[in-house]
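Service request form, structural biology core

Requester: graduate student, group of Dr. S.
Request type: structure prediction, single chain
Budget code: on file
Notes: please return the result as structure tokens.

Sequence provided:
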Amino acid sequence: MGLYEEKYDTSWTSLDRDEATERAYALGVAESLGEYDREEFEAVHDEMDTAYTKSIVELAFREGKNEGREAAPAGDDDEAAVWDELVEGETVTVDAEDLPTGGRDGLPEAVDKFEGLERPDPDEIDATDRPDFLDK
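Core staff response, request fulfilled:
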């Protein structure tokens, strides 16, 4: 049994895009370590219904394969270390005080610097109260 089969159940019936992307990445890493499972990759790839999602799965596979090659294992113990680092990985947590700026998850950097912008405080209920100008 290979590293992929130990981590993932290969008897799945359906996958969403995120699951397929994760599996494709893991398959790419496994292939870079010498464990070829083209049938599983083809099944994951064929599960996607649009050209866009199929291309995401292909990119994830290539990314896993490239990162696995870059890690360059020298022996079986190193292969397990590469797998643990790339696929198992550590969970990344985001500090609540560290709000993202820029990119698609936050305010653009130019707007974030503008102090006239009021950000709602999620702990206050004022944001959901009736506006004062609507009261008689």
